[in-house]
Recover the amino acids of this structure.
């Protein structure tokens, strides 16, 4: 067991200077804190930074988080207060962005979320029913095009069985039997001699 | 829950016109509520927001 650890709240009582967020916050009132942050955003450098961030497609929620963390790290207010003033800050930034004509995205909607539709649900459960209108149209087009000829089986080798009805031509058959053109000519000459 | 998620949730609630109950109980008048920003928007952009437009319509009907 450790007995050397700090007791909860000890950081608020210690005299030694530690991190700013370990000390009591400067602002504890809601209105005061919002007012402080609005005036902070209105500073030229800060508003330029905000617009620059929005310009690089940063969402308003991200900008607000950044501003809040900056203030928390300086010990201006607590994290709880930051949660309370996040909404007003985002709204103010939205208004300023509208006024300046800067494109902005609030970042509140989850775009990566897959929208659950009845078709998707059916597909995921494997209970797809009757074909829909589109597939019916496709089927009608197929019927119009007529029956498709089945693809001929590919002959895989010399010894494989040829497809039905596939007969070699006469020349090829003669060549397979070893009857070359010379032999055929000789045969015809012999037959002529015999006839004579 | 991470900090960014909590901030997002807080913003979403404020945009929906909700304020933390404990905060409103603690203090009767809050200056920076959703209405304040609606009015500010109307003032800056010279166009009434949805909520203020609806309120003005109600007032005109009453008159």
């Amino acid at each position: 067991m450790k007995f050397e650890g700090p007791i909860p709240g000890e950081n608020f009582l210690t005299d030694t200077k530690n991190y700013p967020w370990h000390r009591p916050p400067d602002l504890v009132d809601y209105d005061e804190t919002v007012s402080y942050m609005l005036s902070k955003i209105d500073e030229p450098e800060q508003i330029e930074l905000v617009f620059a961030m929005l310009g690089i497609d940063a969402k308003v929620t991200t900008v607000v988080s950044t501003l809040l963390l900056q203030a928390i790290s300086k010990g201006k207010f607590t994290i709880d207060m930051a949660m309370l003033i996040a909404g007003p800050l985002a709204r103010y930034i939205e208004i300023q962005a509208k006024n300046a004509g800067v494109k902005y995205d609030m970042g509140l909607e989850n775009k990566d979320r897959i929208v659950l539709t009845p078709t998707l649900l059916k597909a995921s459960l494997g209970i797809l029913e009757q074909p829909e209108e589109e597939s019916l149209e496709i089927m009608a087009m197929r019927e119009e095009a007529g029956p498709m000829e089945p693809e001929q089986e590919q002959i895989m080798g010399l010894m494989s069985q040829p497809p039905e009805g596939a007969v070699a031509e006469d020349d090829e058959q003669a060549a397979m039997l070893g009857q070359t053109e010379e032999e055929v000519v000789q045969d015809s000459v012999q037959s002529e001699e015999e006839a004579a | 829950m991470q900090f960014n998620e909590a901030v997002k949730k807080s913003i979403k609630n404020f945009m929906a016109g909700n304020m933390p109950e404990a905060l409103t109980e603690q203090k009767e008048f809050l200056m920076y509520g959703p209405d304040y920003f609606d009015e500010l928007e109307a003032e800056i952009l010279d166009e009434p927001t949805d909520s203020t437009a609806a309120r003005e319509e109600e007032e005109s009907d009453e008159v």
Summary: The two ends of chain A are 127 Å apart (CA to CA). Residues 10-100 of chain A form one domain.
